[in-house]
Amino acid sequence: MSDNQASDILKSWHGVAFEQLCWQHVTQIKRALEIGGVKTSLSAWCLKGNDEHTGVQVDMLIFRNDNVVNLCEMKFTGMPYEINKEENIKLKERIEALKATLSPKQTVHLTMVTTYGIKQGKYSGIVQSQVVLDDLFG
What we know:
Layout: H1 3-24, H2 26-32, E1 40-47, E2 56-64, E3 68-75, H3 85-99, E4 107-114, E5 129-132, H4 133-136
Parallel strand pairs: 3-4, 4-5
Antiparallel strand pairs: 1-2, 2-3
């Protein structure tokens, strides 16, 4: 196995482990979002691709009784997460695909759950809320 393959496997493992950690700390995520008192339901979500659109996979959705849906993207990195042009496009596609399945009364808020937060930049304005690793253990 090459060093690149080992590095890719380790990155993938970090991502999956971080997602599992987030699922185990939903109460803390809700507290960080200041929605601890709002009735919610949770799910992961995917939409199979076809000839008209690409497939979409979302790490976690928090459906709230106040008609807001937090679309939670989880990213494990060793520094603040930077949203580049390609990631911005993917996030917009996920948001639009989800909106197409919801009631017009519902609003989607992009929530980034990351180890060290979001790096401010050209595309960081797409994020409505963020949760960091420290919030999971607060």
